[in-house]
């Protein structure tokens, strides 16, 4: 299964924060054995996810599994929990025995709540104890229900957020830049965005590297490709590449290949 092209969300339960965490945590999720069996039965399959620059925690509640991050393969043992930045393509090899709880932060969210810069995790898969207390992880694993795990982790993150409430200047500029990009149809260049936020292009570039770990050009081009591709898959007959700043469909196709490493023909209408 492939993110965007396939509805991988149907295999999970989701919870989206509606409190102070909403700007920093995209969601909590947990794989559902019932939903997975309903859609794939006992078949072994993979889930392929594209770059998003979103720090993501994987807490293993089940059996060992394998994960490919970029060109490297990792065996995630039963007692191992990991954090990765998702700055490259991630592919997880799934088994019916999998049971994984996920916390997905927005870019910069890890730093806003826990004071931990995500930049150090570029191209890395690290033990989750790097950012979350080991005893918290173990307490969470002993709980039986999804709602109970949500309550424990949300309470912890809110308590930590209180210590980092002071808005960071770098993060504020980056967040405002991303918001301006989205509000203007995903078409403004980094230099145009710099003008809108009253800073120089050099400053915008430095801030993106400081907060996210990549240039504004690379990050925003991936945002545009992800958004446009999602729209195309949902209703290709109503899709217009011009609404997303592409010159024509050929320009859009090339961006899809650059972003996913695959062609539309390989995935749409198969």
UniProtKB/TrEMBL annotation:
<dbReference type="GO" id="GO:0003700">
    <property type="term" value="F:DNA-binding transcription factor activity"/>
</dbReference>
<dbReference type="GO" id="GO:0043565">
    <property type="term" value="F:sequence-specific DNA binding"/>
</dbReference>
<feature type="domain" description="HTH araC/xylS-type">
    <location>
        <begin position="168"/>
        <end position="270"/>
    </location>
</feature>
<protein>
    <submittedName>
        <fullName>AraC family transcriptional regulator</fullName>
    </submittedName>
</protein>
<dbReference type="InterPro" id="IPR018060">
    <property type="entry name" value="HTH_AraC"/>
</dbReference>
<dbReference type="Pfam" id="PF12833">
    <property type="entry name" value="HTH_18"/>
</dbReference>
């Amino acid at each position: 299964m492939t993110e965007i092209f396939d509805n991988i969300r149907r295999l999970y339960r989701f919870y989206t924060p509606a409190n102070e965490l909403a700007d920093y945590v995209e969601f909590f999720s947990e794989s559902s054995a019932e939903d997975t069996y309903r859609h794939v039965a006992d078949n072994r399959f993979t889930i392929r996810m594209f770059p998003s620059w979103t720090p993501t925690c994987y807490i293993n509640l089940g059996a060992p599994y394998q994960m490919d991050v970029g060109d490297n393969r990792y065996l995630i043992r039963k007692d191992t929990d990991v954090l990765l930045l998702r700055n490259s393509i991630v592919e997880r090899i799934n088994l019916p025995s999998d049971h994984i709880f996920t916390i997905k932060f927005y870019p910069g969210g890890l730093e806003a709540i826990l004071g931990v810069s995500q930049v150090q995790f570029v191209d890395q898969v690290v033990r989750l104890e790097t950012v979350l207390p080991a005893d918290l992880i173990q307490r969470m694993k002993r709980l039986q229900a999804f709602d109970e795990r949500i309550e424990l982790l949300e309470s912890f993150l809110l308590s930590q957020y209180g210590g980092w409430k002071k808005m960071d200047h770098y993060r504020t500029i980056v967040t405002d830049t991303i918001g301006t990009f989205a509000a203007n149809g995903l078409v403004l260049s980094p230099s145009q965005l710099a003008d809108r936020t009253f800073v120089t292009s050099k400053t915008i570039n430095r801030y993106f590297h400081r907060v996210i770990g990549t240039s504004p050009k690379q990050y925003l081009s991936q945002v545009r490709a992800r958004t446009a591709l999602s729209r195309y898959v949902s209703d290709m007959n109503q899709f217009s590449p011009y609404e997303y700043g592409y010159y024509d469909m050929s320009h859009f196709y090339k961006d899809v290949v650059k972003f996913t490493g695959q062609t539309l023909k390989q995935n749409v209408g198969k």
